[in-house]
Design a protein that fits this description.
CATH architecture: 2-Layer Sandwich
Strand order of the largest sheet: 6-7-8-3-14-13
Order of helices and strands: EEHEHEEHEHEEHHHEHHEEHHEEEEEH
Helix content: 25-40%
Strand content: 15-25%
CATH topology: Chloramphenicol Acetyltransferase
Structural class: alpha+beta
Oligomer: single chain
CATH class: Alpha Beta
Distance between the termini: 63 Å
């Protein structure tokens, strides 16, 4: 049977496998640091807050979303890809043999949180799982997606919510998922980014040297500024929390206009404000330190067709490195050397000394989705059968003293969401941090928020 990319059927019928890519290896290594605590660092959480319209308003939405989730797996089978047991260098995917097998997967990956009030309560209790998960929360009207970071990225996670809602709004009575043409979905399994971008397989001495120079930029993180944190090096992480002020449409419009007038992006202005907030909240003794940040870039627009399209949302196609000037974006030289870059980063992390007297980094970084409507719509279907999307969110599991401010606009409003671990930062501290970001952003752009 023909397969997509480098997925190949194994000796076991219906089981397909491919090597883990270098970028996936690096991200998985980071995520797996939490496994001894039954947690997963950098696992992605994405939500859409929905309101059903027309006939869906009185439908059994739990059953409807369960069926839609199975359809989404058929469209994006990598949602069910997993690390091969006992082999950390391969991913596997198993075609459901029958309806019973599909129901078994659904029982493990879809749930309804009837007793919780919001996704925040569910996120606190997430633990590592072989597959991606979907949780429906009736009280808040939220759909919560959860996946290991090696399976997708922030953009991909929101694109998957978009695809799910498109399916769920297409019909009040979705086809029985067991009747889908299982086995044909393997042509849609996502490849590693190295394959999808046709990166050179064998690094030349020049590529090795270039990749090493990119990896070397991470030395700038040593001795960088951070904000105070609770506990010490022996303190174990607890749950992941977030605090997320939303700016009004009026203020957001002023921010966009002010950024255009200064020829900067909203992300760049927010980034400067995050850096400023790090300095504002740092201890007095740390205020003379430098600030570093790993800015994330999507590689999706650099991939070959069809991997550059939303059809491959369930793939890890993002990167990041440290550079003084980010506006130039991804260069052909960086892309060409990215396979070796990721391999050297992995070696760096694996050989990093454990413990020691150094203070752990406690900076607050930034990750921006940009305009969310480029990834997910405000409404789906029709007024007779459809959904309104009132809000979206994106975040990751955090298991250390660092935090991340996620930035996006949706329905004309700017969102600033600080995600952190409650063992190391209090809700009051992180609320102050993100409001300091807001204040610095407005003051820096000359905007007065009444």
């Amino acid at each position: 049977m023909p397969t997509n990319a480098n997925w190949q059927e194994t000796d076991e019928k219906g089981v397909f496998s491919r090597p883990v890519g270098e970028n996936e290896t690096f991200i998985k290594l980071i995520g797996d640091t939490g496994l001894p605590l039954n947690r997963e660092h950098w696992a992605i959480n994405s939500t859409a807050t929905i309101v059903p319209t027309g006939s869906l308003a009185s439908a059994d939405l739990a059953a409807h979303f369960r069926r839609a989730w199975a359809h989404l797996r058929f469209q994006h089978p990598s949602l069910a890809a997993e690390a091969a047991p006992g082999d950390d260098k391969r991913f596997i995917y198993t075609v459901p043999a029958d309806g019973t097998a599909l129901d078994g997967w659904l029982s493990k990956t879809f749930s309804v949180a009837t007793s919780t009030s919001s996704s925040a309560d569910v996120i606190l209790d997430f633990h590592p799982t072989p597959y991606a998960k979907l949780v429906y929360i009736p009280r808040s009207g939220e759909l919560l997606g959860h996946t290991a970071h090696w399976r997708s990225d922030g953009i991909g996670a929101v694109l998957l919510l978009d695809a799910l809602l498109a399916i769920a709004s297409s019909s009040l009575e979705l086809t029985d998922p067991a009747a889908l043409a299982w086995g044909t979905e393997i042509t849609r399994l996502a490849p590693a980014v190295e394959y999808a971008a046709a990166m050179p397989e064998k690094p030349t001495p020049e590529l090795k040297e270039r990749a090493g120079s990119f990896v070397g930029t991470f030395s700038q993180a040593v001795g960088a500024i951070g904000i105070p944190y609770l506990g010490d090096t022996g303190t174990l992480p607890a749950g992941t929390r977030s605090t997320a002020p939303v700016l009004s449409q009026e203020v957001t419009e002023q921010i966009v206009a002010a950024c255009k007038a200064r020829d900067v992006t909203v992300t760049a202005a927010a980034h400067a404000s995050v850096a400023g907030a790090n300095y504002a909240l740092a201890d007095a003794a740390a205020k003379d330190k430098h600030y570093t940040s790993t800015v994330r870039f999507s590689l999706r627009q650099h991939l070959l067709e069809p991997y550059s399209t939303p059809a491959f949302a369930a793939g890890l196609y993002t990167t990041g490195w440290m550079k003084h000037e980010y506006r130039k974006g991804i260069t052909p030289e960086f892309l060409e050397s990215h396979r070796e870059y990721a391999a050297q980063l992995t070696a760096l992390i694996r050989n990093m000394p454990q413990g020691g007297g150094e203070q752990p980094p406690s900076d607050v970084d930034i990750s921006s989705l940009g305009i969310a409507e480029k990834l997910i719509r405000r409404s789906y279907g029709t007024s007779e059968t459809g959904f309104e999307v009132k809000a979206i969110s994106i975040g990751v599991e955090i298991l250390n003293q660092q935090a991340v401010t996620f930035v996006w606009t949706f329905r004309g409003q700017l969102h600033l969401s600080a995600v952190y671990n409650e063992s190391f930062h209090s809700a009051d501290q992180m609320s102050l941090f993100v409001h300091t970001v807001k204040t610095q952003l407005l003051e820096g752009l000359g905007i007065h928020d009444s």
